[in-house]
Write a structure and sequence with these properties.
258 residues; 12 helices; alpha/beta; six-stranded mixed sheet; 434 Repressor (Amino-terminal Domain); Endonuclease, Chain A
Length: 258
């Protein structure tokens, strides 16, 4: 988002900026849409070409040192190339489904408690928008989402923000490339995952797993450990509400926010 804004302010095309920096226009496009993450060399080249001082180098360092958990930048690089995305979340909406207002509310509470700076909060929201934009193209990946019921019941940002977020979930569920399910509280011990899990299937059918604790992310490409996670995800899908049942639950909760 920052790169595109600075480029457009100059009146340059992606090819023109690429020529100034020593990259192809397609590489510039991939960074602008978060299909590729910028390297330090790319960031400093951006600053030189666009006369932005150390803006992009600083953003790169913030992204690497505080905005994103360990392993996540690498995960996002794969996310932009995935043919299938499987998400499971607890407590908060999956990032790829969040409205900007919902994402902002989550970021700002971390600013208020001193965990991140206001600049870091802006970068988190901006980076999420880039990830979401990267998945809206002519051949988007299939996305399977299972959310713990806590995701839709925990009110984030107040009634209006949460209501709009639930409306967005209902809209997303209508997309032909998305399957959205809720894992209800009634599953009890059959809620097989205790932490959020992301699973990516790439074009060669290999699967990559990414999971997070409160303070650390972990990327796993080893089939011996990833495939059992995929099997567990399928079992969770079978236990969760159908998409129609999930949308009905979301709409019922939405009524209570009106």
């Amino acid at each position: 988002m920052h790169l595109r804004t600075s480029r457009e302010q100059r009146g340059w095309t992606q090819d023109q900026l690429g020529a100034e920096m020593g990259y192809t226009g397609s590489h510039i496009s991939a960074v602008e849409t978060a299909r590729k993450l910028p390297t330090l060399r790319f960031s400093t080249s951006s600053d030189r070409a666009l006369s932005t001082g150390d803006k992009f180098e600083r953003l790169w360092r913030e992204m690497r040192n505080g905005v994103l958990l360990e392993g996540f930048p690498e995960y996002v690089g794969y996310e932009g190339r995935a043919t299938e995305i499987r998400l499971y979340d607890i407590g908060v909406m999956p990032g790829l489904l969040q409205t900007p207002e919902y994402a902002r509310a989550l970021a700002e509470v971390n600013v208020r408690r001193g965990a991140i700076t206001a600049e870091h909060a802006d970068e988190r929201v901006s980076f999420l928008a880039q990830r979401q934009a990267a998945l809206v193209h002519h051949n988007p990946p299939m996305m399977f989402v299972v959310m713990d019921e806590s995701c839709i019941r925990q009110c984030v940002g107040g009634a209006e923000v949460m209501g709009n977020q639930l409306d967005r979930l209902v809209e997303i569920a209508t997309r032909p490339t998305t399957v959205l399910q809720v894992a209800p509280f009634s599953l009890g011990e059959r809620r097989y995952f205790r932490l959020p899990v992301n699973l990516l299937t790439l074009s060669d059918r290999s699967v990559i797993a990414y999971s997070e604790s409160q303070s650390q992310g972990h990327l796993d490409r080893e089939p011996a450990t990833v495939m059992p996670l995929l099997m567990t995800y399928h079992q969770l899908q079978a236990e969760a509400l159908s998409q129609a049942g999930s949308v009905a639950m979301i709409n019922e909760i939405r009524k209570g926010l009106s």
